[in-house]
Design goal:
By secondary structure, the protein is mostly helical. Strand 2 and strand 3 form a beta hairpin. The chain is globular and about 50 Å long. The relative contact order is 0.14.
Length: 149
Amino acid sequence: MITAQALAACLMIAANTYQVPPAVMIGIMHVEGGHIGQEAGPNFNGTFDLGPMQVNSYWLPQLARQWRVDQYTARTWVRDNGCVNVHVAAWILRQKIVETGSLYGGIAHYHSASPGLGYRYAAKVIAVMERKGLIRHDGEASSQYYAER
């Protein structure tokens, strides 16, 4: 079992490796509410969400190819190894930031490419980050920011 401190260290290394904000990773982890060894689902599309960051099993074929292992092994690593899980989540978030061209869009698409679902999710992540003191917005800038979404 990995300690909270070790998982936090893995999260910081993953955030640095994939150049994503650690505060966002923490926000996602809190919104997802997963834990090591968890496999939630099935989702409406038959996929499952794995581990602390609830990495979707959609990614397993690609990860298995990259890691040169079978999908069962990839699933086990993502689900049961907290460090692997946060690294995969940071890798996914980086891809989504690049695809959408923005951090906010990346957070939304980490959850869902469906705009309504994704943007509600991003708002939840930002709210968690604000509650935990990881970010702060002045009222006027925040209102304008969200109005543009």
